Amino acid sequence: MSLLSNSLLLSSIFLSLLFLPDLVMPKTLESDTNELSILKQSIDPSTIRPSSFLSTWNFKHDPCENMEGFFQGILCRISDDNSRSRVTALNLDPAGYDGLLPPSIGNLTDLVVLSLSNNNLRGPIPDSIVQLRKLNVLALSANFFTGELPGGILNLHNLESLDVSNNVLVGTIPAGLAGLRRLSRLGLSKNKFHGEIPNLSGLWQLSSLDLSQNQFRGSVPQLPANLRQLSLHHNLLSGHLPKTLSLPRLEILDLSRNHFGGQVANWLLELPSIRRIDVSGNALAGLQVYNFTGRATTLESINTSWNHIGSHLPAMLVTIGGLREIDLSHNRLRGRIPERYGAMVGRSWRRLFLNDNYLVGDVPKSLVRKEALRMKGSLASNCLRCPSGLSLCRGGQRTRYQCSRYNSKD
Q: A single GO molecular function, which one (predicted)?
């Protein structure tokens, strides 16, 4: 999940909570004050630095009456009967707090935002989280939480953002997660989740899905049509790249470091909103590129490196107008480099990595021009005849024996 998008969501919710029409806050509900005190007591005092939010929590003062001075990291609202204030947001700073998240956190029942990311919190995520029915944002990423996701999370139907990435969580994704209809961002990356990814097409508002760096198996499931960012890299997923990825709003697709086979089909490159495709580190055997001349395309970057693609270089790549970055390295590509590749370097291509293949012949003159020398890329470890001193060929070429195995027909 994008840190920027998550921060923007938090900021918008915080601003809506902060600018309330009532300027004078009544005293905090006593039970809310008690829960804040329990939370602070659950943190190792030696990890509460003088400049941190928790260091400002002084219970000689009322929390909601002193949010800026003595209780940084919380926001409040006035209760419906105007008699008390309730804590609605708890957003701790990334100060390295070490401790447990106490079960009593579930008693802060007016919480809309619970954000404790980038600390050293450990132990299980308490089951009492189910009591936080008003929660919009649950951000517990980059801690050391263990165990499974509490089943009660499936009952938090107001959740818009759920991020528990970069912890030590285990188990499978419950199928009921698709019932969180308001969810727009879901981040479970960098954990030890396993099993198959369930059908998530019911998450109609989901725009960002990050399940990377886990142990998920099987194929890519049905996905919501509004998805813009999909990151499934570093898992154990397999099969061909399915049509379930044909999503009209998809902009970023990262399926790298899995076990996908088959080919990168042309339909993937021509998705109406796609900007970046990374399918590196799989077992793909082909790259299908048709003529895009005269057609509007959005693709800016494609990475198919570290696969088994054994065809000739696709000449029609030059017809993808917005393309800027190409990485086809570490494959089994053979034949000559199309002359038109060099022409694109002077126009739009900024990165071109074709190294560690079996390409033959002279390097096109257009790739030796000054414009090409400013481009980032590599032609090393091929079977090319490189001009002396050409930086793109730095690292040398393959031996004749290696080259003859793949270019006997050329």
A: ATP binding
